[in-house]
């Protein structure tokens, strides 16, 4: 009997969809437009279901071959109930019970989790996490997100806010306001947005020349421009890069004494833009971290890129159904 897993990684503009075999190898992937016209989520979830039906109809599989469906959603998720409590990017203004809605269409189990959590699960099983049971994934993009896998399971916490590491306060001067309503969160100083915040904060104090001065004046500075200039030896950009790296290293050291991961996987646009950033993070991490908690812990670059979400969404079914069958 051949069994398959269906997966959806819902994003603000597209939904990535995938089909995997029962050992989590990708069989197919495709994407559909994200319909955000319905704030109850029903229409979007129906579109995803119909895309799955279309795929199954054209494939050698039947719906009865599906072990389960995993769904990653950009918002806070109650893993137990499948409820999503307001996904801003999808314009879901109220609580949407993704599992309950999807279960109107299908009989197989449906698992729902936050997109950063499923990305971490994807990297654990098929990416830089190398199958380890203790993996932390940090996504350095426009914002800063993360997922923590501990003892093989995703850390959700009592109401689903576990691993919301972007809102860990590292900037005690609280110079920049965060999207969450508070100030000083690591997202405000160590994401792509955070790099720009720091540049704009420090450059009026500059006493020497910087190659990105014109970009700053034109309001066009980006994290990538800063890292590129740092690589080329620009002292101001090296200073900014070190600041950003120190914040991330501090976060990694706190995570290390909390859950002692084997791999800390850095993903997102910023991790590919700057090897110089990762090297700085490693150096500071080793300086800061309690020695037993960093022994054999590796800081590595993510490997799955855009596929981390669908792989991890399918990984929910693999982790919570298929792997558990084996230990019966
Ligand atoms: Zn925040």
TrEMBL record:
PROSITE patterns: ROK (PS01125). GO terms for molecular function: ATP binding; glucokinase activity. The keyword Transport does not apply. It comes from the Bacteria. GO terms for cellular component: cytoplasm. Its EC number is 2.7.1.2. SUPFAM superfamilies: Actin-like ATPase domain. The keyword Transmembrane helix does not apply. GO terms for biological process: glycolytic process. InterPro entries: ATPase_NBD, ROK, ROK_cs, ROK_glcA. Signal peptide: none annotated. Keywords: ATP-binding, Kinase, Nucleotide-binding, Transferase. Belongs to the ROK (NagC/XylR) family. PANTHER family: BIFUNCTIONAL UDP-N-ACETYLGLUCOSAMINE 2-EPIMERASE_N-ACETYLMANNOSAMINE KINASE, ROK (REPRESSOR, ORF, KINASE) FAMILY. This is Glucokinase.
């Amino acid at each position: 009997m051949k069994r398959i897993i269906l997966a959806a990684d819902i994003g603000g503009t597209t939904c990535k969809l995938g089909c995997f075999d029962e050992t989590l190898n990708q069989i197919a992937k495709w994407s559909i437009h994200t319909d955000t016209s319905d704030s109850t989520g029903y229409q979007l979830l129906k579109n995803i279901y119909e895309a799955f039906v279309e795929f199954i109809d054209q494939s050698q599989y039947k719906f009865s071959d599906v072990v389960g469906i995993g769904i990653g959603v950009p918002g806070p998720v109650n893993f137990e109930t499948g409820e999503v409590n307001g996904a801003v990017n999808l314009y879901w203004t109220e609580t949407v019970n993704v599992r309950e809605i999807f279960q109107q269409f299908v009989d197989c189990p449906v698992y729902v989790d936050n997109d950063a959590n499923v990305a971490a699960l994807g990297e654990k099983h098929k990416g830089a996490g190398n199958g380890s049971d203790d993996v932390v994934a940090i996504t350095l993009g426009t914002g800063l997100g993360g997922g923590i896998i501990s003892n093989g399971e995703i850390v959700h916490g009592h109401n689903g806010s576990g691993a919301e590491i972007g809102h860990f306060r590292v900037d005690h001067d609280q110079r920049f306001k965060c999207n969450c309503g508070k100030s000083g969160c690591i997202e405000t100083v160590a994401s792509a947005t955070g790099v720009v915040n720091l540049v704009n904060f420090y450059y009026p104090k500059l006493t020497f020349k910087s190659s990105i001065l014109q970009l700053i004046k034109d309001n066009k500075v980006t994290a990538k421009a800063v890292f590129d200039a740092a690589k080329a030896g620009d002292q101001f950009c090296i200073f900014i890069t070190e600041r950003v790296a120190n914040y991330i290293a501090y976060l990694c050291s706190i995570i290390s004494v909390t859950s002692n991961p084997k791999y800390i996987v850095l993903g997102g646009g910023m991790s590919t833009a700057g090897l110089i950033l990762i090297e700085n993070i490693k150096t500071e991490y080793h300086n800061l971290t309690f020695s037993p908690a960093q022994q054999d812990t590796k800081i590595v670059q993510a490997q799955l890129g855009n596929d981390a979400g669908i792989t991890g969404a399918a990984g929910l079914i693999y982790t919570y159904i298929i792997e558990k069958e084996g230990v019966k």
